[in-house]
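dude i think i finally got it to work??
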Amino acid sequence: MGRTLLIHKDKQQDKVKIATLDENNYLIGYVEEDLNKEVQVGDIFLGRVKLVTGALNAAFIDMGLERDGFLHYTDLTPNIRSIIKFTKGLLEGRDYDPLLRDFTPEPQTEKDGKIENILEANMYLPVQVKKEPISNKGPRVSCEISIPGRYFVIHPFQDIKGISRKIEDKEQRKRLKRIIEKYYHPLMGLIVRTAAANATEEQLLEDLENLKKKWIETVNNIRKFKKLYKQGKMLPVIIYKEPNRIKQLLRDLLAEPFGKIVVDDPALFEELRESLMDEMPELVDKLHLHQLEAPLFQFYQVDDQIHLARNRQVPLSEGAYLIIDKTEAFHIIDVNSGSYVPKEGSQEETALKINLIAAKEIARQIKLRDMGGLILIDFIDMTKPENKKRVFETFKRELERIDRARKAFDESGLSKFSILEMTRERSHNAITAEALKCPYCAGTGYSMGDPTLIVAMLLRDLERKIKQARQDRRTRALIPRFTLVVGPHLEEALRKKLPDFLKKHKFLSFDTVKVSVEVNPEYALFQYNIVKEPPVLRKPRLPRWLRLLFSKPRRRGTRRGQRRTSNRRKSSKKKK
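look at this
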C-alpha cells in the first residue's frame, strides 16, 4: 500500500498543512507552512557582511530581515574566494558567463582557517538559507549554494558530481554516470537524485535545463543592482525564491514512494494534477480529491495524533509510556514501564521488550516533533551488551527509515546506564514550538494550588510597590493609588485579606493608601496584575489640639445621635 500524503489548505490563514502517514496510518511527518512566509529554506539572498567575529569564527549577514543571518566558517565552502570574486565582478559590471564556463577560479581556502582572513565588513556575497529563523535566533545561512530539481541538484562553484546512494542498481548507476559525464562541466556541480533512477535521458536533460535557467536568472538578478552598488546605495535583497512553495514541498516529499496523495481543495487538486502530469506522470493515478463531509485530517485521525505530539507524555502499548522534556540545551526522552505487568520472564527480558517497543515510537516522535540539537534517550536499564546492541540497532534502523535529516549517533551504543546520545539537525519549527510557555508555572509544570498563597504573594508585591511610592520625596504629599486586577478565582480570597492589610498600613505609617479591586473574567486561574494609578493629593491633617480648638462645642451629656432624635421629636410636635 505504501505511505499516504495528506494535503490540507487553510484558506483563512493562507497556510498549507501536509501530513505523512506510514503503512499503518501512523503520523510520521507533519509540515505546516505559511504561503506568505518572508523567508524559507532554499532562498538565496545577496547579503551584506555586517559583523565578523573571530571569537565565533563566524559572521553576521544583513539580509534585509528582522534578524541577521549567521554564517559560520564551515559554511563558507572552499570556493568562497571564487564566489566573492564573481559577485564583486557582476556588481562592478563585468560580463561573466552565468554558467562559469569562462570564469577563472581562485585558490581554495584551507579547512581550518579564520573567517576574518576571508570576509570583511560591508562585503556583498550570495548566501542561501540553510535553517529558518527559530524562536529568537536568526536564519542559519551558507555560501554552499544549491538549486534542487526533480532529478538533479546543481551546485554552482563546486567541482563535484555524484549519484544518490539509494540508487542501488548497478546498471542504472552506470547509465546515469554516462549522462553526467556528457552534460557536466567544472564549477557547476551535479548530483543525481533518487527519482532519476527510471527517468529517460530526455526527462533528465529537461530538468537540467530548467535548473540552469533558474541559476542564470539568479545571476541576472545580481546584475540589476550594479548601478546602486556603484552609487553606494546598495541594500540586501533576495535574488532567488521558489515560485510555488507547495510544489517545492511536494518535490522534496515525493522523493520517497507514496501509495496515495489526498488533497481537500479542488483548485489545489487541479494545480497539482497538471504539475504531476508534466513532471511525475506515474503519480497522477495516486492523486485523489477528498470529498467526504468529515474534514480530511479528522477523517484520517491526524488531529488527534498532532495533539498527542504536543503532550509531554506519550502512551505505549501494554501500559508503558514515554516522557519527553525539552531544556535550553537538549531534549530528554525517558522510557517508563508504567502499569505494564509481565506474565513471565525475567526483569532483563521485560526491560528488553519495553525498550524495543519504545525504540520504534521514539524514532517516530523525533521525526514528528522535528527535534534538533542534542537528544538523550534514557531506556530502561539493561545489563546484557547484546540486548543493548539490539535496542540500538532497532532504533537506528527505524529512524533511518523514516527520517532524512542529518543526524549522528554515539556509535558505542547505549551507555552503562542504558542512555543513548545523538544529535539531529532540523530546519523548520517543530510542532511543540507553536505552544507558548505557561504564564503561571513558567514551563515547570508546577503551580501553587491554594488561592490564599497567591493572594499572600499579591499583597507582598503590593506592599513593596507602596514602599517604593512612599520613598519618593516628590510624592510625600500624595496618596498612592493602585488597582488590583485578578481573575474570578482570586476575588473572594483577596477581599477577605485586603481590609486587614490596609488597616496594618494605616496604623504603621499613620498614613493611608487607596486600593481598588477589579475582576477580569478573561484572567486564568492564578493570574493577577497590580496597576499603579495616578496618586491623589493628600489633605493637610491638623494636630489634635487644633482640631479640638476649632471644632464646634458639644452639649455635655449628649451625643450627636441623641441630639438629632430630640430635634426630630420637636419638629413633629410643631406639625401637630
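The longest strand covers residues 44-53.
im so relieved honestly
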